[in-house]
Amino acid sequence: MPLTYNEYYNERTGLTVGLKKLLFSKQSEYQLVEVFETDSWGNLMTIDGMVMLSEKDEFVYHEMLSHVAMFTHPEPKRILIIGGGDGGTAREVLKHDSVEQVDMVEIDKTVVEASKLYFPGVGDFENPKLNVLYEDGITFVKNIKVPYDVIIIDGSDPVGPAEGLFEKDFYQFCYNALSENGVLTSQTESPWVESYYPSMKKVFHALNDLFPISKMYLSYIPLYPAGMWSMAIASKKKNPLDDKVIDRVAGSKNLLQSLEYYNPDVHSGAFALPNFVRKIIDKE
Amino acid sequence: MPLTYNEYYNERTGLTVGLKKLLFSKQSEYQLVEVFETDSWGNLMTIDGMVMLSEKDEFVYHEMLSHVAMFTHPEPKRILIIGGGDGGTAREVLKHDSVEQVDMVEIDKTVVEASKLYFPGVGDFENPKLNVLYEDGITFVKNIKVPYDVIIIDGSDPVGPAEGLFEKDFYQFCYNALSENGVLTSQTESPWVESYYPSMKKVFHALNDLFPISKMYLSYIPLYPAGMWSMAIASKKKNPLDDKVIDRVAGSKNLLQSLEYYNPDVHSGAFALPNFVRKIIDKE
Prior knowledge:
- By secondary structure, chain A is an alpha/beta fold.
- Chain A has ten helices and twelve strands.
- In chain A, helix 5 (about 170-175) packs parallel to helix 6.
- Chains A and B meet through strand 1, strand 2, helix 9 and helix 10 of A and strand 1, strand 2, helix 9 and helix 10 of B.
């Protein structure tokens, strides 16, 4: 019988991906990490049966989670990534010349190990600016002494070890750990699964309470449930839709040439929220 | 064994939807039309095993296929819909006060029959401005004597009876059948399945050759393959991104209140194409 990977959301709605074979399977202290060779998406990583990335579509998630925040900050030097063990977010962040140090705090070494073995194009783990720490992200953020310019929350779904990354307390710690022009981004799941895994409203309201500027934006990730994926951005001073930000994006021609999804139009257009998405995050 | 509906694209990548029961199944002269009651998407219509619409997500496709073109025209009176047998596109078009006549040319009466029975919220078939004709759309367009202000191509996938709706000859007939300020829109499949069902590039280039103005835009439809769906718009004179158009959208408060997806931000934002989508339609 042909092998398939099946992930269900929204009762029995789901995604099926044809597989060639299982390449990696390890139950870590935290979760089950698996890598499959697929028919048409390159290698695919799942955690506890949920898609994390495929080689063919990872560019969407990683570019959109990184560049919107990185360009919103006028000169990001110190970057913190919470989670992001596959290395894709760090790879994108490191494309910005201003960056001096990227601290990536991944709770589970197994994710990094699997990525190094089976996603050679995703991580840039040899980059001397990248510092990988295997620690609990929440504890790490609570104890930060030297502030960061950009914090990116690149956690998995709000079940299992990433659950705390959707709580207001955590975002308060992040606020405290951000520099004056600090910008934060977090992945907040799909609006279409909000009733099953409440994330968007919770995170957006937390950010809206804590930060002077907070917004949601969208991108399309084919192997994530329903395809429409939301991300939140918040900052102390800098508006991601400011003309200066858009000019900065448009002026970064070399960086943009390496990208497959993000561009100046996409930066602005991603903030156009359909009515039903606005309703989810509206304060009541 | 629990019932599921499975649609595969891109080799063995696919969508699974949990079903309660089959409500309708009829092999018409053209295709197999089926309606299922699903777990979480309301009723679902498929044609030859491909999702056409569900009650829960149809608003995205119908709003985005209709209103971008309808607002681009300054005063659309005579509207032609090719296909669109479920009635959802006509329902959206009829929300515009300027509309005097909507001719909907659907080749397959079975689609209308299934919609009337199982999608009571989708069609507005009793509206006196709506004129349903059961004819071949291509032959109809070839013989048009009185021009239309807006033509909307709401066909199914480019296999089976809708295949001709992706050909340049057809768009030449449409051009001839449009009034001076005429606007045309067509659904052009997902950029993620372009290599399997070439549609976007073919239609965009046909429109680009024929019309002074042609653009592609995107929306997110959870039950369509990969979620990211493209549509093409072309016109003789009117640019969908003109300030006058955006003002017209923003000023239509009553109409906008009835919508779940489309709004002025979405109108503009939908035209922001990711780099990999731009590459698909770039002339070579």
